[in-house]
Design goal:
The protein is mostly helical and about 400 residues long. Helix 1 runs antiparallel to helix 6, helix 3 packs antiparallel against helix 6 and helix 9 packs across helix 10. About 55% of the residues are buried.
Length: about 400
Amino acid sequence: TWLQAAAVRWLVYQQTDSASLLGVVEAANLMPGLLIGLFSGAVSDRIAPRSMIVAMEFGQMATAFLLAALVGLGVVQFWQMVVILVLARIFVSFEVPSRQVFIYGLVGPENLTNAIALNSGLFNATRVIGPALAGVGISVLGAAGCFTLNALSHFAAIAAVIAIQPALRPKRVHGGKAAAFGDVLAGLKYLRGEPRLLRHLALMGFFGLVGMGYESMTPVYARRVIGSDVGGYSLLLACSGAGATIGALTVARLGDRRHKDRMVVGGMLTFAAFLLIAALFPYWVPTSWPLYGRLAAASLCLLGTGFGAALFYASTQTLIQLAIPDHLRGRIMGVWMVIFSGTVPIGALWTGRAASAWGVTRVMCVSALSCIAVGLVIRWTGVLAESASQVDEAY
């Protein structure tokens, strides 16, 4: 899947040479979750997680084959890629809450912290392999080959999920459309009375809106700032994924520690510091440096941003999962997905537009400084400390 994402971004930028349209692609990848996330979370509390996951995997596989066919025939257009990405994301939006319920059924509450972190680590580890394959795949097989490999990979995912037998089988609720709508309202009502969850969800929304838009600008950063081709672009993505993997495994290693709020803030500040260094790249890396030296310096920057982002997201998700009751797990994780799926693409859109007008490094600098300011305010005021301690005591 990461291989396909990298290939789509590079293909769009190659065809359009537009940073703004890269933001549109990022929005297409995530925006559907904003529209249907609440409903998909309610559905995940009603349908067996494994059945939902398998069905949605088949849907994603179909969209990947369609994209491969259009690109292979040489008839693909930008709007077609956007529509296909939207359809694929709809399938993902129904799958993600069910996956969260599925994970809980596999490990139970006593191992949930480590399970979330390890799941995030494995997820981000694929970001190392996928972009590296993308560099080779785009050069050797072309974009259509990347999309075909992604489509075929879903067979392995489907077989793995079918083979898993969860230890816990939470009771499913039943009812029609009106009951499902009531489930959504029940989840929102619960959140209204839980300020500790609302603070974490709000902070996650800010981080996605202001910080994570930089990811969609990676092709622009690779070509215009570093002066690299698709190989360098793949290396930057792989290093970001490697950093994210290390960050997630760090959460797994420190999962039993108290004061998890400090890990949340520490992740945001680490992310912002390395993003700021990456934004100031033209000022501390001379143009006389050889390309491999410039790539190495930029890769270290993105390694740090990936580490900080994973530390932030894994710690936040752990705190949220530990705080919610079992019967509302799917619905609350649906809200989590709405915030993630809504803020990241909006951030990608404004980042793309702003980068076209001001330059990608200036926009990255604004994002980094904003995250640093918010992170320091949260650390000094301690607004997350109460929620973290309450969750730790419950755990």
